[in-house]
Amino acid sequence: MSLINTAVDSAIAIAEKRKGKMGAGVYSGRPGVVLERGYYALKSSTWMVVASGFVEPVFYLLAFGYGIGQFIDGSTDGAGNPITYAQFIAPALLATSAMNGAIYDSTWNVFFKMHFGKVYNGMLSTSMGTLDVALGEIGWALLRGLAYAIGFMAVVSGMGLIPSIWGLLAIPAAVLVAFGFASVGMGVTSYLKNHQQMQWIQFVMLPMFLFSGTFYPLSIYPEAVQWFIQALPLWQAIELIRGLTLGVLNWAMLGHALYFVVMIIGGLYFTTRRLTALFLR
Fold it and tell me: What is the DSSP letter of 61?
């Protein structure tokens, strides 16, 4: 009984503390609780599901970079300097790895909690708000994207595929990319109601992976197609990380980073509004 009283007193104290503050209806300052839950859930799940997201881009690198890559000549960085084909695709696969880690946790994981586990119903019956839930879930997806990025970066660095010291900044850049995809991914998932609709996510991600300059330069496309691809978030991510790993820095990279800042802000706002409409009516 004392535990129940303690929990009630804690909830009342949090409610009193946030009363009258901006955003009090959606935020209690407790997204860390959602992260903690994610950690305990991970400990009880199979490690192979998590590891698969890291292994996949490594296989692509070996198959394309060192397999097909030995038959491909003429790869250059953004400044026209010759590089190997493996050096060309490695940063693109790093960006893809960060995207996959963030997207899968902020879509399928969120979908199960929302429609089957009813986890958010329980969370939002406490002192927590919808922004707490959004930040916690997106933060957990961000950590998965970061883990994939660090693991893949360690592999490609060991292979000598990062010729520039600026490549160290590819890790925080990958975190920014993961944050952007996770923010938007959770908001989109909140509108999907069944497994068939969830397949739309893969339907969008696979073509984006294949055509965003991952395996060949954008210049091979007609100009109209180039404009369309340049609007895709994965192309923005690849250009940002490729510029850092190859040491080809320009002002356009600030535009790529700003693209993801806008994704993060818009995704958080959109997700919070949607969760509030679903669970706090």
Answer: I
- In the chain, the DSSP E strands lie at none
In the chain, where are the structural domains located? 25-279
pLDDT value at 22 more than 60: no
Q: Which two tokens stand for residue 203?
A: 């339907």
**Which of 79-87's residues contact partners 24+ apart within 8 Å by CB, and which partners?**
79/248, 83/163, 83/246, 84/161, 86/61, 86/159, 86/161, 87/161, 87/163, 87/245, 87/246
**Residue 184 half-sphere exposure toward CB, CA atoms < 13 A:** 15
Q: Write down the pTM of the prediction.
A: 0.84
Report helix, strand or coil for 106: helix
For 239, the token pair is 């250009």
In terms of Cα–Cα distance, which of 172, 138, 171, 177 is closest to 152? 171
